Structure formats: C-alpha cells, structure tokens
Amino acid sequence: MDVGFLAASIGVLLLLIDFVIRVIAIIVVPRNRKPTSATAWLLAIFLIPFIGVLFFLLIGSYKLPKKRRTKQDEINRFIIDTTEGIERVRRDHPWPPWLESVVELNRNLGAMPLVGGNRAQLNGHYEESLAAMTAAIDEAKRYVHVEFYILTLDKTTKPFFEAMEAAVKRGVVVRVLLDHIASRRTPDYKATIERLTAMGATWHLMLPVQPFRGRYQRPDLRNHRKLLIVDGRVAFMGSQNVIDRSYNKKSNIKRGLKWKELIVRLEGPIVAGLNAIFITDWYSETDELLRRETEPITDEIDPDDLDAQAVPSGPGFAGENNLRLFLALLYYAQERIVITSPYFVPDEAMLTAITTATQRGIAVELFVSEIGDQALVYHAQRSYYEALLRAGVRIWMYKAPYILHAKHFTIDDDVAVIGSSNMDMRSFLLNMEVSLMVRGRSFVKEMREVEDGYRRDSRELSLEEWMKQPLRSTVLDNLARLTSALQ
Q1: Which of 2, 235, 287, 390 could form a disulfide with 271 if both were Cys (CB 3.0 to 4.6 A apart)?
Q2: Dmax of the chain from CA atoms?
Q3: How far apart are CA 94 and CA 439, in angstroms?
C-alpha cells in the first residue's frame, strides 16, 4: 500500500474522529451542568480533544454512584423520623422575618430541622481545640464517633490517639471514619492505620478509591467533614483536622506555615443531629445502620440557649445545599456580612449575591490569607479581588506565615454559619461538607470577637494596591480561574 495514501487516510480518520468528538461534546457536556463549567469543559475538549475527553471521562461526573445516593435518601427519612428538640426552639425574641424561610430551605435540602436548647463555645487556638476534643474522649462512657477529612498520628495528635485507645480499654465503642485520599497523602498514614487497628477501634475509609476491591468513584469526590461526637452529649465541628498545624509537609515546614482554625463545641439536641450525619456516612461505607441514640433532655430552657440547624451537603444530594444556604443568607442580609474562607472561588451566583449586597448598602467584609498553600486555588481566588474591591467589599488579608483555614460567616447580629465548607466550587459540588447555622445574638457576638481578632492580625487590601499587580500575576490568576470551572 502506498505510504502517502496510508498517511493521508490516517489523517482524514483523525480529523473525522476529532469532528465527532466535538459534536458529541456539544450535546453531552452542557447537559445538567452550569454554563461556566460546561464552557470550561468544552474549551478543554476543543483545544486538546483527546486529552480533554480523557479527563472528562475520568472526572466529568460530580455525582456519587447511584447506590450511595439511594442510601442518602434512606437516611434522610431516618433523620426526619427520629428528630428531637424542635419544640425547644425559642420564639420569645423576635426572629428576623426571613429566617423561617431559610430554616424551611435547609429542612427541604438536608432533612435536618432547627432545634433549640443548645450551648456552644468557639475555640480558635489550634492546640487548645485538640486538647478539648481529647478531654471529651477521656470522659466518654458509651461511644466515640470520630470523622475527619484528615486524621493522622503525629507528635501533636498523639494524645488524641491515646485517649481513643484508653476509651476502647474502658469498654467504650470507638468508631472512626477518615477520608481515604486526603489521609493517605499524609506521611504517617500507614502508622495511623496500624495504630487504629492495634487499639481496637472500628475504622473505615471514606470514599475509598480501590478499584481492585470494587470500590471506585470519581477520585476527587471527597468527604471533607470534621466531626467528633461523644456519647450523644457533646460534639465538635468546624474547620480543623486532626493533624499537626503544619500538615507535616516539608514545603510547609520550610516556609514556616501554620494553620489557623475555628471549631465549635456543642451541647444540646444539635449533638444528635450531627451524630445523624456521622450515622449517614457510616452507613454509606459499611451498610451498617447504627441506632440513633439520644440523650434525654431534662434541663430547663435557658434564655441564653441557641437555636441551631445542621446542613449536610455534597454530591450525595440533588442540589448544592451549602451554596443555596449561603445565597439565601446573602440576599436576606440587612446590615452586615462578614465572610471568612481560606479558598474563596465563588461561582457566578455567589459573586452576584455579594456584589448585590454592597449595592444594597450592606457592609461586606472578606477575610482570606495573605499567602496560599495551594497555588491553583490561590491564584483563582485572586482573580476575583478586583471585582470585589470595585463593588465595595473590604478584603482583609491574614498575615503570613499563617493560613487562615477557618470557614464561617455572620449575617447582621442574628445568624452565624460555621463548618467545613469553603466558598468555592469544590465545596459546593465535589466535597461532602457540613455547615451549622446558629441563631442567637450571644453566639454572633462571640463570632464577632473572633472576626475582630482576625482584623487585628490582618492588613486591608486596597484597590490602588491591587491594580499595581504585575502582568504575570494577572495572567496566572486568570488561567487558574478558567481551570476552577472544570467541575
């Protein structure tokens, strides 16, 4: 066969395949996908067709397998049937007129109700918060439920593991969930697993990527929740993982990076709600549906008690529960919005909500880190600064060498939200998260004090300063912004 003819035939075939790929992509990619994400995927496929298609097949679906989504529906019904504490919601102090609809929204999205009679205490000191969680485990009598995105044994977390081991020896049931990929990336992963096994804890990996064992889903769908529940009596949740504040990475240690976190210690009916989220994840990984044990509520309602609502979110749900909650609160705000997020990469709807708030005369502040630990996200985040500053948002940059990893925001003097969720498309679409909405002026006041502390340790970014950024930084920021839409 003539070599020239063969080469020409192969060239025509490749062009034909390229054309077919483009046509199919236009039909398939935009379906049930946000326009920004669809555009980014189409751009990738059109510029690098074969590689783009390969990546789309690998990470193009942001939904969990159908079996897991079915389990989520089952557990939602279980939560609705076993809820306590609704009758303790206080209405002696006038609610904001909009709050009822937000509570209903959260209930419809994640099945969790607003419950009253709760007490909460914030803790933003890294070692102190680990010590507080360790002390709670030391007091456990029946069970300890541990669920963290990253759980690792190192010098800092050694007392936490010793407390779990001592609890097992006392006859306490210790159940542990840790995210497979995130924890596996830590240097001490093997030692962590060996220690959990040796102490007698029952542990499982969350969203394991083990194709040879029949366990596989999109590898970057992760369980990002951080929860500790002890005896149904006390719970901890927030942004902090169980690991040294350097995250034990050589690059972090070399740069002197230290993580700044915020967690909340909770007592009251909301503890059962957070435990129900643990039960959901345990059931998803083990097929074992635990009994939802609750502590009897015998104490009188205190005027300072808080109303709280847990909002689970993630690819197991039909919609972006956390994003919808955040958007509702941003639009309902009447006076002030303060946002703290380490990875702030808003979608179009959130950017519009924030800039609309400033145009309505709402004071909006954003706390971010001065430096970043993840280059791609850091540059994508920076690409939004100009639009935010021009809209009137005050941006505070928490000074190096700290990474402000706390995730929370406050609305007026009425409502605060704290949890594991960043304000980026990964947390909205790909990660399993948990947020806690709290109504109570005392809690918001405490959160304001935390924000005041951030402000003292931050510098404000001005539009004048930002416009002096070199061209190379602008190019990097905009390229990172494009890739952030590939969800």
Answers
A1: 235
A2: 92
A3: 11
Distance spanning both ends of the chain, measured CA to CA: 46
- Give the global pTM: 0.88
Range 252-257 contact pairs with CB under 8 angstroms and sequence separation of 24 or more: 252/373, 255/401, 256/401, 257/371, 257/373, 257/401, 257/402, 257/403
Report the distance separating Cα 460 and Cα 27, nearest Å.
46
Beta strand 344-345 with 226-230 is unpaired
Contact 288, 237 (CB under 8 A): no
pLDDT in tens, 258-316: 999 999 999 999 999 999 999 989 998 998 988 766 555 555 566 678 999 999 998 87
- Locate 388 and state its tokens: 């935010």
Question: Exposure of 21 by Cβ count < 10 A (0-12 exposed, 13-18 middle, 19+ buried)?
Answer: middle
Please name the helix (run of DSSP H) or strand (run of DSSP E) that holds residue 326, with its range, or none: helix 321-332
Q: What is the DSSP string of 366-386?
A: EEEESS-SSHHHHHHHHTTHH
Rg of the chain over Cα atoms, rounded to whole angstroms, equals 24
User: Which bin fits 232, alpha (ψ -120 to 50), beta or left (φ > 0)?
Assistant: left
The per-type count for the chain, helices as H runs and strands as E runs, is 19, 19
406-431 pLDDT, tens digit each: 999 999 999 999 999 999 988 998 89
